[in-house]
Amino acid sequence: MIRVRWNQRFRYTHSTHKIFGRTVGEISGLLLHFKFTPQFHEHVCEEVERGEHFDDAREYKAYRAALERDPEFLVIQNGSKRFENSRQLVELGLMREPFDFMAKTTDSLLQPGPSQVPEFAEEATVYLEPDFSGKQLREFNYFDDEWKAQIGQMSNFIRHGASVLDLGCGPMWLKDIRPDLQYTGVDSCRRSDNSLVADFNKGEFPVTKSSYAFLSGVLEYVQDVPGFVERICTTSEACILSYCLRGTHPDISARRQWGWVNDLTMNEIENLFSAHSFLLVAEDMTASRNKILVFARDAAKDQRLPPPVPSQEDAFPTSELERNSQRKWVLGHLNKWGVGAELGVFRGHFSQLLARTALPKKLYLVDLWTKQGELFDLGEIPYTNYNKLTTRQAMEDAMRRMAPFKSVFDIEFREETSLEFLDGLAQTGTTLDYAYIDTYHQYDQTLAELHAIDRVLAPHGVIFGDEWHPSKHAVFHGVYRAVQEFCRSMDYHIVACGPALQWCVKRRPKY
Fold this sequence. Notes:
CATH superfamily of the largest domain: Vaccinia Virus protein VP39
CATH topology of the largest domain: Rossmann fold
Strand content: 15-25%
CATH architecture of the largest domain: 3-Layer(aba) Sandwich
Number of helices: 17
CATH class of the largest domain: Alpha Beta
Largest sheet: 7 strands, mixed
C-alpha cells in the first residue's frame, strides 16, 4: 500500500491503477488477479445482474455470452504455465527487478538490525508539481522502453527497404529496430551527424521525399495540424502515426499538463488526410492506448480518375454498406499479422475492412470475376446494377479500392475459383491463418470450401464467413447446414455466430 500526498494537479487514470503527475517509485508491483475460478460462471451472472462494473458490466456480459456459446470453453492454452513464485515471473519477463533495488533488498536482508527503507520510497513523499507552461516541443522527451515498444509495433507497417522520414525521431530507435530502411531522422535538435533539424511549430519542414512519414507521439505537440498534415502528404506516399485520441484520453487538463496542444478525434484526423487524397488503410492500438493509424495515398482519387462503375449507374445498396461495417466484429477472432484469404471479393467493399482490421502479412483476394463471363447473371438485383454491372467492372473496382492498401500490405489478386485456389495452396504447402467465405452461399459449395480450407489451415487458424441463416426457409440456409455438418464431422466448433449474419469456427483445442 502506498500513501500519496495529494495535490490538485494529480489525476488517477485507469480508475486508481495509475496516477498522473506523481512518480510513486521505481518499482511497480504485480497483482495476481485471478478471475477464472470454478465459480467463474456463477460470479459473472451475478455481476451482470448487479450492473455495477464499468459501462454497465460490459465485460461481464461478454464473458457470459462466450460461456453460453461454449459452456466447455477453457482458458488453458499450449503456452499456459502453473504459477510457482515471483522469480518465475521475472524469468518470464512479466516483472522486472532493477539491479540497485535488488542489491539494497539483499543487503538489508543480510545485515542485522532494523530493516532499511529504500531511498526511492522516501523520495516518493516529496511533491514535485508538474509545470509544462511555456515549454517548447523540444523540451518534451519521454523515451523509455514503452516508447521503444511502440515504435517497434508501428514499424511493422513499413515495407522492407523503404525510405522513411522519421518526424520527431528522438533517439532514432526506428533506425536501430529496422536497419533495412533508407532512414532520415528529423527533430527539433540534431540527433546525429545525418539527422535533419526542423521546428514544426515554426513552420519548418524537410523537403526530403520518402515512401513513408513516421510520427511516434509527435502530432499531439503540433500547433498547426492541418498545415503539418499537408506537408506530410506532399512529401510522402504513406504516413504511420500514433496519437492519443480525445476519446481515449478525454481529460483536457491532463492533456495540457503533458504539453499536448490539440485534442483530435479519429474522424478529425481521417478528414485531415482525406482532404489530400489519403485513405486510412490500417489501425492498431498500443498497450498504453495510443492509437496507431496508417494512411496511404489514393492515387486514383488524387488523379481524379473516373471510377470503374460510374456513380450515376451504381445501385449497390446503402443497407449493405451499413451492414459491411457491422460485420467487423467477427474479425476480432483472428490473429493479426497472419496470412489470410477472402473467397468471394466482388467489388472489394469488405476487403478494405478485412485488411484494415487484420493487418495481414499476406492477403489473397480470390474471385472468378471475368472467367465466369461478361455479366454475373444473378438476376435483376441492385447488387449488380440490375444485371448491367460487368465482371470486369467489379474486378477493376476491387483493385482500385485496394490499391492504397498495397503500399502497406502484401495483397495478391487471384482470378480463379475458390477450390482451384485452395488446391494450389495445398500443392505448394502454403498455409492460411484465416479464410473468409463469401462465395455462392450454397450447401454443397460451402461444405467443399470448408474441407478444402481445413487442408491448408494453420493449427490455430480460423474460418469465418457471411450469410448465417438458421431458418430452414432462408434462401442461404445451406451455409448454416454446411457449417454445422462440417463441425460435427471434422472436430471443429463454432466460436461465434449471429450478428450481421457472420459466423466463425475453429478446431477444438486438444489438451
